[in-house]
Amino acid sequence: MISEQSVTKKLDQYSSNDLMDAIIDRFGEDVVTYANDMESFRAVVNVAVSHVFYSWVFGFCGKVKIKGPEEIKLRYIEMLDNAIKGLE
Q1: Alpha carbon distance 70, 14 (integer Å)
Q2: Which of 5, 6, 33, 78: disulfide with 50, CB 3.0–4.6 Å?
């Protein structure tokens, strides 16, 4: 299991175009984005990986997709699995 400690990592993520303002609010006006397709964009940003970050991603109901690094994706999946198991 990955440590709960906040660690800064470079995150590769895709977001739907309607979230551009939210990405700028979170990561600043200097965030570099790339067109992915007609409906989404890609951003590679530095994030402090923590429960707060994962809850921010979750709040967009799948419109923000973590593409890498793999350990960030796996930790998010683990947190989601644990939350689902808590409902059983």
Answers
A1: 14
A2: 6
